[in-house]
Amino acid sequence: MSARNGRLAIVGLGPGDPAYLCERARPALAAVEVVIAYAPYCDRVAALLPGIPVEPWPIGAEAERAADAAARARAGASVAVVSSGDPGVYGMAGLCLEALYELGWDGRDDPEVEIVPGVTAALAAASRLGAPLAVDFACLSLSDLLVPWELIERRLEAIGAGDLAVALYNPRSRARPHALDRAVTVLRAHRDPATPAALVHDACRPGERVEICELGCLRAEEASMDTLVVIGCSSTRRLGRHLVTLRPRRRREEAS
User: Fold this and answer.
1) CB neighbours (10 Å) of residue 5?
2) Domain CATH number, residue 113
3) Is the omega angle on the peptide bond into residue 56 within 30 degrees of 0, that is, cis?
4) Strand 165-169 to 227-231 pairing
5) 10 Å Cβ neighbour count for 36?
6) Is 107 within the bounds of a domain?
7) Distances (CA, A) of 177 to 144, 154, 224
């Protein structure tokens, strides 16, 4: 292994608008020799730090991207890997750590690893709605690229039976046009059709758009990969233009 001290920064870029970027992200990126990024994120990195070398990678090569970054850092290079939102929520942190340990890293020797958090899509979307995730909630991706639909459906059943508000990532794509319809069908078996729900498109990005509705009339065809879907639970209320999931103390007061 090289005598140089390697470094791997795993950085969350947040929801999109630089105003919501964690303050630590810029200096963490500025300290490395190269940034490895999914191709659509390269412009975001270049806008933050003009002139920094950025290597674009295609979608679907996440494990390979993580392995490449880990190998370079283990050999003494200073590298950053970026994720949209938070790197530990459907991001690159887990893959990068797994790749490092597979190379014999013990968590203490080179490279130094820093994980910089970011605002994940569920929280960005929730901020536009009010407080729909104010109590216990679940996050679930509807993408079946890596997880079989049968397992996704079992998790939806558990969320429905557990009366949890839920944030649904990756709700609909050209390859999966019926994923959100199927998810809504599962949840409707457990919830009142009047349960508040919402589609938040491009949260905290240009073109942001919010649609608040009820579960019974949620229009799945309006969703895309840039949409975060929030479906409330039995304690979620629509208060004016906001969705609020009430805390247990408030619910007891309502019942009295």
Assistant:
1) 12
2) 3.40.1010.10
3) no
4) antiparallel
5) 25
6) yes
7) 12, 20, 9
β-bridge partners, 236: 245
Encoded amino acid at 131, one letter:
A
CA–CA gap between residue 7 and residue 175 (Å, rounded): 37
CB 67 within 8 A of CB 99: yes
Q: Which of 118, 115, 159 is nearest to 139 (CA)?
A: 159
**Model pLDDT, residue 60:** 81
Q: Quick one: pLDDT band at residue 1, thresholds 50, 70, 90?
A: very low
Rounded to an integer, what distance in angstroms lies between the CA atom of residue 143 and that of residue 188?
A: 20
Q: Domain count of the chain?
A: 2
Domain limits at 27? 7-119
Phi, psi of 58 (to 5 degrees): -80, 160
The string of pLDDT tens digits covering residues 38-81 is: 988 999 999 999 999 999 998 888 999 999 999 999 999 999 99
- Residue 94: phi and psi, rounded to 5, are -60, -45
Q: Does one domain contain both 126 and 113? A: no
State both tokens at 255. 């019942």
Those residues whose C-beta lies under 8 Å from the C-beta of residue 158, and which sit 6 or more positions away, are: none
Model confidence pLDDT, tens digit, residues 156-169: 999 999 999 999 99
**Same domain membership, residue 133 and residue 81:** no
Q: Is the dihedral of CA 72, 76, 80, 81 positive or negative?
A: positive
User: What tokens does 227 get?
Assistant: 């949409």
Check if the beta carbon of residue 232 is closer than 8 Å to that of residue 196: yes
Tokens at residue 245, please? 């999931």
Same domain, 188 and 223: yes
Classify strands 236-239 and 34-38 as parallel, antiparallel or unpaired: unpaired
